[in-house]
Specification:
By secondary structure, this protein is mainly alpha-helical. Helices cover 66% and strands 2% of the residues. The chain has a two-stranded antiparallel sheet with strand order 1-2. Helix 1 runs antiparallel to helix 2.
């Protein structure tokens, strides 16, 4: 089972997933520091970091939908759909927090919005676990094909694995 969207033999979506999740974590940290009495601009930075994460989540979602076409029906397809639904749920919670903050004068998060962001990150953590499972399933075919040698056999791969030359025994 191979992903349609690949860069040098590696699927794009697992690479893209790290950006929205990392940005959501950073946004939540900025909001925590703002609530803890940090400079007022931290709330603004947290808001705009959430917006950037939502843009990244949209791109990741598109890549996920393209990859979903190639997943055969069954357990793996259900896991892939669950993974995408969980990521959409996390993004939807952050959309709500961004919409609430959009009209605020300094766009800082309240304690209630901060708790909402923590809930969204909890949902995202479930998505990370599902994503790790899917990466193992997608790469199982290559790993079973021959261990490390199979990594160099990917079409269009820029990495070539070779065995070292045998040393003569003196």
């Amino acid at each position: 089972m191979q992903s349609r969207l690949r860069v040098h033999g590696h699927p794009i979506q697992p690479m893209l997933v790290t950006f929205p999740f990392g940005l959501f974590v950073c946004a939540t940290l900025f909001d925590l520091f703002d609530l803890a009495g940090g400079p007022a601009f931290l709330g603004e930075v947290g808001y705009w970091t959430s917006v950037a994460a939502l843009v990244a989540a949209a791109m990741t979602g598109v890549a996920g939908m393209v990859d979903l076409w190639d997943v055969p029906a069954g357990r793996t397809r259900r896991a892939a759909i669950s993974f995408n639904v969980v990521n959409v749920a996390m993004a939807a919670i952050f959309v709500v927090t961004c919409l609430v903050r959009a009209d605020a004068p300094h766009r800082g998060a309240s304690a209630a919005l901060f708790v909402t962001e923590l809930v969204a990150l909890g949902v995202g953590a479930l998505g990370v676990a599902l994503g790790a499972h899917l990466v193992r399933v997608f790469d199982r075919g290559r790993a079973e094909a021959g261990g490390l040698e199979s990594l160099g056999a990917v079409a269009g791969s820029t990495v070539e694995l070779t065995r070292p030359a045998a040393r003569p025994v003196n």
